[in-house]
Design goal:
With about 325 residues, the protein is mainly beta. It is built from three helices and 18 strands. Bound molecules: copper (II) ion.
Length: about 325
């Protein structure tokens, strides 16, 4: 009998503890603002080198890519409202990536997705909290948003909870992936991928960007495989641009610049982004080269106080030769 009483007391104790833990969680479970996005998937002709020039060394794009820089891609494109008529402008440096989805810890993210392509697609987010129906990934057991048919739409609801936001060793904002996950491999190579940026609670401007930085860039290092079976179909790109064609990486001298660096692709996608001209702070250590594997998400900070035009490239020898290079400019 004494044993029974102890058991009951202990159960009560656990209920109280469980309630306290749940109470803590609910503090950050979608109790903040609501951020809504209107994103369509659309077919586009993408040009990996719109100038036709190797802007790093001068002269035309080298063989075998010369004349082979335009390919049919699918992209996530942001619109201003549910009519999906007016495109929301995005920074030119974002390139082939979908729009930046932002939230402050505590916010709820609502993404209205419209599939304007002729195949089944989805949006699967990393990092944020979701239930099965909002996971956006096609496998068993299926969720409601796992396959959006051609012409169909789905509204995803995700929560930027405490565990979506920066950890103890992170800066005030961090980056996560989102991508289509019906046939994940071919969806990603088609071009259906983009960044989510989550800012620490209390550290976000009204637009969700972090208060303690002056400028942000997102760059993806990925060899898009156009399944051509030849080297000319392997596009060693940064944000979908090769040989210095990535535009707009421009900042002002003295600014605190946050770089969100993303990797994706296959076993050849071992990339080592390298900045000339400046160093960055990465996980409390100083470097000017970052290691990236497929699926990687890395956030680093730079004090841009060395005016000039500087190379920004992958340091893997083969990838440099294939044009995985850009420049950034400090004015
Ligand atoms: Cu590389």
């Amino acid at each position: 009998m004494v044993e029974g009483v102890i058991r009951i007391l202990m159960m009560g104790f656990f209920v109280v503890i469980a309630g306290m833990v749940a109470g803590c969680n609910s503090d950050s479970l979608g109790q903040g603002g609501v951020r809504e996005y209107y994103i369509a998937a659309e077919e586009v002709i993408w040009d990996y080198a719109p100038t036709g020039q190797d802007l790093i060394h001068g002269g035309p794009i080298p063989e075998p890519w010369n004349g082979n820089t335009q390919w049919t891609k699918l992209r996530y494109i942001e619109y201003t409202d549910e009519s999906f008529q007016t495109r929301k402008p995005q920074p030119e440096w974002l390139g082939i990536l979908g729009p930046i989805i932002r939230a402050e810890v505590g916010d709820t993210i609502i993404v209205h997705f419209l599939n304007r392509t002729n195949r089944y697609l989805s949006i699967h987010p990393h990092g944020v909290r979701y239930d099965k129906d909002n996971e956006g990934a096609h496998y068993n057991p299926p969720g409601e948003g796992s396959m959006v048919p051609p012409g169909g739409s789905f509204t995803y609801t995700w929560i930027a909870d405490e565990q979506s936001g920066p950890g103890p060793n992170d800066p005030s904002s961090i980056v996560w992936w989102y991508h289509s996950h019906v046939d994940s491999t071919s969806d990603i190579y088609a071009g259906l991928l983009g960044p989510i940026i989550i800012t620490k609670k209390g550290m976000a401007n009204p637009d969700g960007s972090p208060k303690d930085v002056d400028r942000e860039f997102v760059t993806l290092f990925m060899v898009f495989d156009e399944a051509d079976g030849e080297e000319r179909g392997l596009m060693h790109s940064i944000n979908g641009y090769i040989f210095g064609n990535l535009p707009g990486l421009v900042m002002s001298s003295g600014e605190k610049v946050r770089w969100y660096i993303l990797g994706m692709g296959n076993e050849i996608d071992l990339h080592t982004p390298h900045w000339h001209g400046k160093t960055v702070l990465y996980n409390h250590r100083r470097t000017d080269v970052v290691e990236l594997l497929p699926g990687s998400m890395v956030t680093v900070d730079m004090i841009a106080d060395n005016p000039g035009t500087w190379l920004y490239h992958c340091h893997v020898a083969d990838h440099m030769d294939a044009g995985m290079m850009a420049v950034y400019r400090i004015e």
